[in-house]
């Protein structure tokens, strides 16, 4: 039947798309277990590249920088972004359209523009006032700037999905402003906050461009280390790092998705 | 409270409080004005006394200001002018969480992150009621509202009727001076609605609590209320017990809103004879001096239909244009002197008239009433 053929065609297209998206990743993962020194052939299963990683101090430093940067920036972005998201919701009836656009804009701004601007900004501050020279601190600030819009939007969309009379019900049931935050806003937001944290963390771990422009000489993150290592020639070790990063990002993204979904299912 | 206080000791003062409150007026509204941004006027000078222990209904079409009035009582809106007293205390400036008032919201507004039990306990917890007493009171209200088996459920697993009950329990458990209900039955289907109307009324009588109920449904208002205030354009048109508002509406708006009426512009009145498009009809009493014009009101159910005109009645000739059979009653749309006239007859097994039948219409002079336009 014609319709059957069409359905089969659609499903074939789906599998092709998946292959297109994930085949390069699969190749990296596959070769990370290759015992040979080159990616030209597969010599047999081995964990030697993973072992090498554990003894590579530079790489472990980069990993620790990435994690510190990711966690610190995500926590700050979570606090600031949540407050912005709540503010956007509370004052949504006012004509704040252009202000809201300012929050969206960084999401579509090219990273390279952000990175260069951040660098120029920090260099100026350093020159004029002697503060904020390239360091982990400048990287955290730069990461927070691109994480905030995502957190604010997740929090805002959670609030918009809520019955607005819930806010009034909390007041009506004797909750003081502090109690409303503690017993209504935070518990209601919790799944969205966890989702926003994991998304921020994923974005931070993933980022190369902005980190590259704002990092000090001591603060190479994992992507910066990999970039440097590749310039010296592709080592199978890179495959192993990439595989670990894929795993970490997938886990964080799945957490983000699960919690965001749970948050919206409740309303 | 001292450590030696027993539950009975604790219970007694509240009983006395309730009794003393009941003597006083529960709610006094003085000259309340509320304007929203732009020139929308929601309330335009409302004066009202609501007695303690009363089932009081704010009735009106959408946009009449009834919900705004309820929100002012809850403290969710602040008036632009006027004052508001609840239980003898001026609460005009008091924020909602410090008022002894609870609301059953139209959407129920149950917290999705909490179980049924925790939803009901929320107000008590915020007030700082100790856990043991909180548990006792939640159990008590759960038995009272008959939702014991639902306590551990999440609220998104419940039906509309169950949510309504829980919203009611969550407000009642706080034992407020006044319970506010914002169209709490409007989302339910007709059968459940009728059942819950009766249940709500019973609950109110058993607790002796002051209920202020908002609805746009005049049947609902009449079934449940001790007194009704009919609102239009932010102004209270009439306040009174259901039978008074229904039978003696003060003006054409109230009459039309309560329903089942025929209204005709008055063209002239001489002594006890009133002239309208329907013809000349006799009234019971002459018009009070100083009043003229207005509208003639004839309720649909006072009109008698038959082959002859009854003794002492106004008689008119009519033709049946439409018949609506409703089981317990039959509605006829008649044409009298070229004017439409609605008549409702109780179904007592009498003969049904068919469309096109010519009949005599009898209206007692007592039932011909002049009201303000």
TrEMBL record, chain A:
Gene3D superfamilies: MetI-like. The keyword Cell membrane applies. Its main location: membrane. It is found in: Cell membrane. Coiled coil: none annotated. Pfam families: BPD_transp_1. Signal peptide: none annotated. The keyword Cell membrane applies. Keywords: Cell membrane, Membrane, Transmembrane, Transmembrane helix, Transport. Residues 63-259 form the ABC transmembrane type-1 domain. It is a multi-pass membrane protein. PANTHER family: PUTRESCINE TRANSPORT SYSTEM PERMEASE PROTEIN POTI. Belongs to the binding-protein-dependent transport system permease family. CysTW subfamily. This is Spermidine/putrescine ABC transporter permease. It comes from Salinicola rhizosphaerae.
From TrEMBL, chain B:
Residues 27-258 form the ABC transporter domain. InterPro entries: AAA+_ATPase, ABC_SmlMolc_Importer, ABC_transporter-like_ATP-bd, ABC_transporter-like_CS, Mo/tungstate-bd_C_term_dom, P-loop_NTPase, Transp-assoc_OB_typ2. It comes from the Bacteria. The keyword Hydrolase does not apply. Keywords: ATP-binding, Nucleotide-binding, Transport. Signal peptide: none annotated. GO terms for molecular function: ATP binding. SMART domains: AAA. This is Spermidine/putrescine ABC transporter ATP-binding protein. The lineage of its organism: Bacteria, Pseudomonadati, Pseudomonadota, Gammaproteobacteria, Oceanospirillales.
């Amino acid at each position: 039947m014609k319709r059957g053929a069409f359905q089969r065609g659609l499903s074939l297209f789906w599998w092709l798309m998946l292959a297109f998206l994930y085949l390069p990743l699969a190749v990296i993962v596959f070769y990370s277990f290759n015992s040979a020194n080159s990616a030209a052939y597969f010599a047999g299963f081995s964990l030697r590249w993973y072992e090498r990683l554990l003894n590579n101090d530079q790489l472990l430093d980069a990993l620790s920088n990435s994690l510190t940067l990711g966690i610190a920036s995500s926590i700050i972005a979570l606090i600031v972004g949540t407050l912005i998201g709540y503010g956007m919701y509370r004052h949504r009836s006012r004509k704040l359209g252009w202000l809201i656009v300012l929050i969206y804009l960084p999401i579509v701004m090219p990273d390279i523009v952000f990175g260069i601007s951040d660098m120029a900004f920090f260099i100026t501050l350093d020159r004029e006032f002697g503060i904020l020279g390239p360091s982990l601190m400048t990287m955290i600030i730069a990461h927070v700037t691109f994480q905030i819009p995502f957190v604010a939007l997740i929090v805002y969309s959670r609030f918009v999905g809520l019955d607005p009379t819930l806010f009034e019900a909390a007041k009506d049931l004797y909750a003081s402003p502090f109690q409303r935050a503690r017993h209504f806003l935070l518990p209601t937001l919790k799944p969205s906050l966890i989702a926003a944290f994991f998304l921020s963390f994923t974005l931070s771990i993933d980022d190369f461009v902005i980190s590259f422009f704002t990092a000090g000489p001591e603060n190479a993150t994992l992507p910066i280390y990999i970039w440097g290592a590749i310039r010296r020639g592709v080592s199978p070790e890179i495959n192993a790092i990439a595989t670990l990063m894929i795993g970490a990002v997938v886990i964080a993204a799945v957490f983000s998705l699960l919690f965001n979904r749970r948050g919206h299912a409740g309303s | 409270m001292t450590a030696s206080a027993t539950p009975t000791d604790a219970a007694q003062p509240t009983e006395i409080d309730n009794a003393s409150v009941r003597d006083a007026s529960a709610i006094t509204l003085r000259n309340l004005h509320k304007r929203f941004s732009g020139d929308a006027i929601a309330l335009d000078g409302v004066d009202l006394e609501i007695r303690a222990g009363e089932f009081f209904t704010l009735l009106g079409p959408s946009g009449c200001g009834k919900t705004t009035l309820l929100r002012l009582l809850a403290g969710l809106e602040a008036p632009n002018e006027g004052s508001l007293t609840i239980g003898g205390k001026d609460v005009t400036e008091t924020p909602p969480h410090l008022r002894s008032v609870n609301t059953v919201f139209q959407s129920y507004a149950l917290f999705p992150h909490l179980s049924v039990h925790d939803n009901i306990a929320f107000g008590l917890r915020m007030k700082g009621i100790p856990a043991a007493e909180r548990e006792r009171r939640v159990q008590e209200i759960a038995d009272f509202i008959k939702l014991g088996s639902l306590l551990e459920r999440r609220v998104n697993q419940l039906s509309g009727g169950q949510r309504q009950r829980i919203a009611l329990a969550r407000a009642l458990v706080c034992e407020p001076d006044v319970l506010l209900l914002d169209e709490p039955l409007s989302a339910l289907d007709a059968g459940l609605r009728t059942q819950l109307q009766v249940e709500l009324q019973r609950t109110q009588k058993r607790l002796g609590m002051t209920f202020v109920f908002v609805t746009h449904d005049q049947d609902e208002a009449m079934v449940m209320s001790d007194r009704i205030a009919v609102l239009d354009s932010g102004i209270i048109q009439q306040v009174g017990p259901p039978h008074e508002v229904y039978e003696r509406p003060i003006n054409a708006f109230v009459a039309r809103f309560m329903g089942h009426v025929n209204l005709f512009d008055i063209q002239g009145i001489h002594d006890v004879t009133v002239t309208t498009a329907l013809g000349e009809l006799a009234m019971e009493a002459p018009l009070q001096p100083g009043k003229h014009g207005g509208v003639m009101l004839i309720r649909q159910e006072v009109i008698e239909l038959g082959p002859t005109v009854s003794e002492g009645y106004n008689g008119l000739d009519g033709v049946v244009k439409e018949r609506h059979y409703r089981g317990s009653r039959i509605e006829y749309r008649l044409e009298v002197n070229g004017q439409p006239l609605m008549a409702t007859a109780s179904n007592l097994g009498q003969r049904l008239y068919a469309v096109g039948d010519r009949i005599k219409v009898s209206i007692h002079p007592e039932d011909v009433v002049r009201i303000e336009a």
